């Protein structure tokens, strides 16, 4: 009898924890938006429309993964939009000059461009110990400027990109677009690593309290350097796939993505001052913002509402986080006081 | 990253007092107290001196590249380009000194532009429309301030949110329309300078306001309070400084000035569009940080920001004269920004490397 009630209470607790998880609430919001839009416009749930939805969210999901790692350490990487643009153009240019280039090699080249940018960011932030917000704002400009000089007003056209590469952005396997599968695999791998491996757990420690992390013997600078390298590499990788999705690239590719990605990450429950949040949540945040974007089109609400709604959503999300935080803190204090009184 | 939301004065009364000021890039101060204080004083002096050097170098470079650089007409173009940015940089300077940030400045400018065009197109007399837009600026700024101070939300995230929100509202108001046909007496803002000078209206107003801001920031109790908040919020709070009220005031001021800049922007380009000044927030932040304002708050001078305006505007002007594209110019802007944080820190970095060398040498011998 007692064992059963305990297990019932236990499962209730698990159910409560499940519902309290940020990922679940975002997923519910995504489904609500999706469902409401489908009721209004049935074609929103068409396989083709859903595929478009997933393709549209993929690049943002990947960028969100890299940005999450950086933000968890209480830093920020504002250069990812510029890195994406540069990488996309470099890959496009490689294809324009070598039409028979191996696709994997091209993606690797894009990732390499991002990796290099990440090393530069990480080195400046950790060796000179200067605030990442300022450094990456600087490299945002520098990389975008280099991109403009490299592009020199030209444009890569779809005709110079092999169709097998463009297919990455459109072909599907059992109805799921390749690009979305790639993004999901990335989210799952990094998400698993962030739960399991010790160096990844260190990132949370660094973000919660940099000083305590250092006292605990965590090589904070090395870890932070590594997150910047990874964030850059992922942005470069995403740049190559961005090219596969759009098949054309000029010097404005990825312009302004950095703030969109930070918005998605924060909506996904990653605290802007580090120490908490998951890669999965951030990826879902990216999907949510993209779903709202597409839903407005499908609901024939003018697309002009898109930005305003995204902004309102972001503010609601952080206000909600704050509310939950204050409530939990109050509950903890009450529990503590009760224990002291005993 | 500015300051932790945990440190808000309201929660201090409870149990948790965060022990260390959060500076992600410098997890632990390794120097001794006296050394740090002296070092900070020196680096503060040095950056303003370095800026004077930058200003002179910019002028020399501009003169060497084009004999057109030091002409009145080019100075007018310089003002058109950098004036609106400079205007928005002034209130942002104070906000950054308190350890917060406002990224919604350019969106507020765009919203002001949009609203002004909308009201004008709907037959409002311009003076009335201008007042309405300024009121809107006060409201948007206050909303930022309320979210940051009363709800205790992190300003970086909040103002990324309102950046999107305000631009979105601008888009809803004006959609893809472009409103033109403002009376000529207003549109001269973009074609002729303030009488008897070569100052554009934006730059002229900036110069006057910069003096006012400098006096308030560096000589009044309010100014000292702003520095105190940025240095240590808890100490400021327990010293009787109304931390939240001052921050709220600064955000409101920022909204008001960005709306003003938006009005001038509209007349300067003789047209109103929702996407006016898109992406300009990063330029404004760049000017402020290059001017030597610490992103962690508590440090910086208005003089530094004024010189930063001269350097960044001047270099852009010189590069435009020799036909470097606006996008390629961004390399220079970015490098300057990185230099502005790396240079004052390079001494400390060298010291650390040397300390490590000294520490490791005996064990080797």
How would the blueprint of this fold be written?
The complex is a heterodimer of chains A (342) and B (365).
Chain A: H1 2-20, H2 22-40, H3 47-72, H4 80-97, H5 103-127, H6 132-151, H7 163-170, E1 172-173, E2 176-177, H8 178-196, H9 198-208, H10 210-215, H11 220-246, H12 257-267, H13 279-298, H14 306-341
Antiparallel strand pairs in A: 1-2
Helix pairs in contact in A: 2-13, 3-8, 3-9, 3-11, 3-12, 3-13, 4-5, 4-6, 4-11, 5-6, 5-11, 7-11, 12-13, 12-14, 13-14
Chain B: H1 9-12, H2 33-65, H3 72-97, H4 105-121, H5 126-150, H6 155-174, H7 184-187, H8 201-219, H9 221-231, H10 233-238, H11 243-269, H12 280-290, H13 302-321, H14 326-364
Brief overview, please?
With about 350 residues, chain A is an all-alpha fold.
Would you kindly provide a written description of the structure presented here, covering whatever features stand out?
The complex is a heterodimer of chains A (about 350) and B (about 375). Chain A is mostly helical and about 350 residues long. Chain A has a single domain, classed as ABC transporter involved in vitamin B12 uptake, BtuC. Chain A is built from 14 helices and two strands; from the N terminus they run αααααααββααααααα. Chain A is globular. The two termini of chain A are about 30 Å apart. Chain B has about 375 residues and is mainly α. Chain B has a single domain (about 55-345), classed as Orthogonal Bundle (ABC transporter involved in vitamin B12 uptake, BtuC), CATH 1.10.3470. Chain B contains 14 helices and no strands. In chain B, helix 2 packs antiparallel against helix 14 and helix 5 (about 125-150) packs antiparallel against helix 11 (about 245-270). Chain B is globular and about 75 Å long. Classes of the chains: A mainly alpha (about 350), B mainly alpha (about 375). Chains A and B meet through helix 5, helix 6, helix 10, helix 12 and helix 14 of A and helix 6, helix 12 and helix 14 of B.
